[in-house]
Amino acid sequence: MTTRSPDAAPRQRWQILFSRSEPALRMRQADLVSELERAFHEVNLPLSYTGALKPKPRIKLAANLPIGLELRGEVVEAYFDDLVPADQIHAAAEHFPEGIAMKDAKEVWHGFPSASSQLRGAEYEIEVASRDELTSDALRGSVVRLLAADVLSGKRRRGESERRSDAGDRDLRPLIEDVEVLEVDEAARTARLRTVLQLDASGAGRPEDVVQALDLALHVRKAVRTRLLFVDTPPIAR
Asked: What pTM did the predictor assign?
């Protein structure tokens, strides 16, 4: 931690594009921030801290991290009290925990809005399977009906349990922006979908919402969040 005044503004902001895979799929957000803090200290970077009674590192993820989901294009912003060259950011990335990999890093002008404030959605790839016959025509027809629907009733919840008090029936249609069939293996009764879902302060769609809304007996085999989508795309994600 630096000895600068807690009221002093950080001198530099970096945006880091990263992925998360095994064995870090169940790493929680707070744990990831702690690991990034440790990695920056490993190479003596002047990480900036808040002026709170218990100072916290100025590390902010653009989006909440869903537990158990592979992530390929996440954005985190880190603030520093002194200027940090790019090679030191790359050196810190060598100390990221296994399963967390830096894909790119870019210094960002302080006047640019935070990535989290510009977040609007996310793109996913979903692998689905059926115990029944699955044809390309049936799946594509189901997608057309989903996108044409005005209302899609379904159960939404926070957290991982439907027994929570905030579980209940809600309209899922506003959460689903687009769905596209990428591939269908009729012999294996499997398919791959691409979907764009809302992800902002007002709500978040989930891959399970899309599969639930399709009028076919499908279940999710695997889902990957391939990238985040922004109102004004941050420099690192362009």
From this structure: 0.88
